[in-house]
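Help needed: design a sequence for this.
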């Protein structure tokens, strides 16, 4: 999962460099689509890591306290 996230971020950075001459971020107060996509990918990755952490805590608690 981490490798695919990293690959997507690298592709977005390359795309941003290639398309930088087409769009100037100084002219528009809105963030570019590449930046929004990068933030969305990072958000999904953080949610995945958080849910994995919660899942491991729940699994650990079920093995330590099987009667509950």
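Sure. Designed sequence:
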């Amino acid at each position: 999962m981490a490798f695919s996230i990293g690959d997507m971020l690298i592709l977005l950075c390359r795309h941003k460099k290639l398309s930088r001459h087409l769009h100037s971020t100084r002219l528009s107060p809105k963030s570019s689509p590449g930046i929004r996509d990068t933030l969305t990918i990072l958000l999904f990755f953080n949610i995945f890591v958080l849910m994995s952490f919660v899942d491991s805590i729940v699994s650990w608690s079920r093995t330590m306290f099987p009667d509950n």
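The CA atoms of residues 20 and 27 lie 12 Å apart.
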